[in-house]
Amino acid sequence: MNKIGLFYGPLGGSVENVAKKILKVLGEDKVDIISVQNATAADVNKYSKIIFGISTIGSHTWQRETPSKDWDGFLQELNHIDYSNKLIALYGLGDHLTYALHFVDSLGVLGGMLIEKGAHIIGQTSTEDYDFKDSDAVIDGEFIGLPLDEDFESDKTDERIKNWLDRILPLFE
Length: 173
Description:
By secondary structure, this protein is of the alpha/beta class. The chain has helices at 14-26, 41-45, 59-62, 71-74, 105-116, 157-172, and strands at 4-8, 31-35, 49-55, 87-93, 120-122, 125-126, 138-139, 142-143, 146-148.
């Protein structure tokens, strides 16, 4: 099995913590973790198996005038990635209580952009075990990736990661 490229952002916080949990489960021999802050399309193009991790930031930052140094800058790199022969899995962090109408929306925005570019997305997750009102990450009745809430459901994170990895790893082989 070739290494999985796990690209995440932002640095620090829950998305990075989840990336480290995935690394711990899979091992350094199976995955490289890379912050999107300084990553380029060339970095992504080295991998045929990719995991992207993203957070949904609250409404206080949705209308800011200056982009963040992480995903806002990296999104342009998506235009320069060769999606043929790649499998991509996504995970996203959000707050299902405070932002019940926007739970893990960035996961859906990212997934939608990748689909438009012809990416093959794996790792969809049922909405059944989640309590939220609306989410841009729900596509065809399922989350496009793995949603996690480290603010209010951190006790479910390890099991959700394990179950998700159990589903996607056979597809990565």
